[in-house]
Amino acid sequence: MIRPPHRPHRPVMVRPHYRPVPPPAWRPHRGVPVIRGILGLSFGVAIGTSLDYLYNSGYSVDGYANDIVYLRNVPALNYVWTDAALYYGSRGLDASSFYYSTSVYDMSRYNSVYSDLVSTYGVPVSVNNAGGLLTSTWFGGNRGYITLSFGSGSAGRFLTTLTLGL
User: Fold this and answer.
1) Contact in structure between 116 and 78 (CB atoms under 8 Å)
2) Which residue, 67, 119, 140, 155, is most buried by CB atoms nearer than 10 A?
3) ∠ CA 74-125-115 to the nearest 5 degrees?
4) Phi and psi for 52 in degrees, rounded to 5?
5) What are residue 76's DSSP bridge partners?
6) For 42-67, what is each residue's pLDDT tens digit?
7) Strands 79-89 and 92-102, sheet pairing
8) What's the whole-model pTM score?
9) Tens digit of each residue's pLDDT (9 = 90 or more) over 124-157
């Protein structure tokens, strides 16, 4: 276990609060990609195997503890995210979150990633705007999910978060 070092403005990286569930009548559209993994890792892979892969592939592993692997400056969906976390459960890798924190209200990253996700997965299954947090959710052909959110983070900062899971 190697805890990541403290950094100013690092977002709080905790396991997503819940796994979104598609509405009962929801069915994937033909051609919607399945969501099998992220960063070249398949969902279900063990933490040790993931660490070997990440180190050997040149990712900046910032630490790992409590079934979470912390990364820095990770590319995903045509952007570099300043922080990322891979979450592991009893069945291996089951979710990942990518974080980008800014000191100003700037939705440009959210809007661009949103547009890319719409072009790949169609319109989101749900969009919520509650308590200053805008969240959109998509599902893949295998019920894997993607959430994209933007809102106030900690210490007066704004946070764009991309989460993928199975």
Assistant:
1) yes
2) 140
3) 50
4) -55, -50
5) 79
6) 999 999 999 999 999 999 999 998 89
7) antiparallel
8) 0.93
9) 999 999 988 999 999 998 879 999 999 998 778 9
- Cα distance between residue 101 and residue 152, in whole Å: 9
DSSP notation for the chain: -BPPPP-TTPPP----S------TT--PPTTPPP--EETTEETT--HHHHHHHHHHTT-EEEEEETTEEEEEEEEETTEEEEEEEEEEETTEEEEEEEEEEESS---HHHHHHHHHHHHHH-S-SEEEEETTEEEEEEE-TTS-EEEEEEEE-STT-EEEEEEEE-
CB atoms within 10 A of CB 30: 6
